[in-house]
Design goal:
The chain has 71 residues and is mainly α. It is 69% helix and 0% strand. α1 packs across α2.
Length: 71
């Protein structure tokens, strides 16, 4: 994993916030529970890895990938 720029870090954190929010809404759980669920998944590492390029994508698109990979 390469070193992240401040801009990349900002975009990644923003994306994670959206993904956790979508997850909480979908599963009818709290934000805290959604955070635990998201960060327990292998997918969270992919989101934080700049090599995947997920931070450039729309949150809804990445969330669809998350749902497919964590079914």
């Amino acid at each position: 994993m390469s070193e992240k720029t401040k801009d990349q870090e900002f975009l990644i954190q923003n994306l994670i916030a959206y993904l956790v929010s979508y997850l909480a809404e979908d599963k009818k759980i709290t934000i805290e529970q959604a955070m635990e669920m998201f960060f327990a998944s292998k997918f969270s590492k992919k989101v934080e890895d700049t090599e995947t390029g997920y931070y450039w994508e729309s949150p809804s698109y990445v969330y669809e990938i998350y749902k497919k990979e964590t079914e």
